[in-house]
Automatic annotation (TrEMBL):
Organism: Flavimobilis marinus
PANTHER family according to UniProt: ABC TRANSPORTER I FAMILY MEMBER 17 (PTHR43423)
A GO molecular function held by the record: ATP binding
GO terms under biological process: phosphate ion transmembrane transport
Name used for this protein in its record: Phosphate ABC transporter ATP-binding protein, PhoT family
CDD domains: ABC_PstB_phosphate_transporter
Length: 259
């Protein structure tokens, strides 16, 4: 079951550097929220705070809260590994494990979390996850082939299958189509539209048309002055953001006059 995310007064630091300043927003369950803004505005950093992935960088810390279904992900008793099971991540470049087969790639996260799974359950999970990622019909006869043998677009869908195999509540996508051709991009966009029936999805994209096509709500981040941290400028329904944003900076960015 997908969950709503409430972010309250979030500051993200890398050492002494404040990368994201005072962001508050609500991300609705079973919807697609797009994060847009110029390079360096903190949107990918913010995305990674939603499953504590930013913590892999030394010196990273946050102030504020990220609450999923009443649970603050940053509470002292919360295990970041469990957070990452609930909140899956798909990265900019497809990253299947090259030494693993297609089937093993799907099961990788599951086995990391729970090493005991029966053969029949594993086969069912592989098929279900690949169907969920619209990839089953293309790979069902070669599940023992390396994941790296697939095309770029197929590899990215394999990574999505791997993410949903652990049954997360939220799926984060950091520019999932930036390394893909237009046909593969369309396949991922169609998939996102289907996945939001079951998951809360947050996507970072530099592609304005993509944000307009796939998202229900859009959040615009910007750098507050030279060298200043990223700020959330405004957030609204996507149709409103693209037709009549309330901030001039948003309008300038969306229309291509800035960033």
């Amino acid at each position: 079951m997908s969950k709503r995310i409430d972010v309250d007064h979030l500051n993200v630091f890398y050492g002494d550097f404040l990368a994201v300043e005072d962001v508050s927003m609500t991300i609705e369950a079973k919807s697609v929220t797009a994060l847009i803004g110029p390079s360096g505005c903190g949107k990918s950093t913010f995305l990674r705070t939603l499953n504590r992935m930013h913590e892999v960088i030394p010196g990273a810390r946050v102030e504020g809260s990220v609450v999923v279904d009443g649970q603050n992900l940053y509470a002292s008793e919360v295990d970041p590994v469990e957070v990452r099971r609930q909140v899956g991540m798909v990265f900019q470049r497809p990253n299947p494990f090259p030494t693993m087969s297609i089937a093993e790639n799907v099961l990788a996260g599951v086995k990391l979390n729970n090493s005991r799974i029966s053969k029949s359950d594993a086969e069912e999970l592989v098929e279900g996850s690949l169907r969920g990622a619209n990839l089953w019909n293309e790979v069902k006869d070669r599940l023992d082939r390396p994941g790296s043998s697939l095309s770029g677009g197929q590899q990215q869908r394999l990574c999505i299958a791997r993410a949903i195999a652990v049954k997360p509540q939220v799926v984060l996508m950091d520019e999932p189509c930036s390394a893909l051709d237009p046909i593969s991009t369309l396949a991922i966009e169609d998939l996102i539209a289907e996945l939001k029936n079951d998951y809360t999805i947050v996507i970072v994209t530099h592609n304005m048309q993509q944000a307009a096509r796939v998202s229900d709500r859009t959040a615009f981040f910007n750098i507050a002055g030279t060298g200043k941290p990223g700020r959330l400028i405004e957030m609204d329904d996507t149709a409103t953001m693209f037709s009549s944003p309330s901030e001039k900076a948003t309008e300038d960015y969306i229309s291509g006059r800035f960033g």
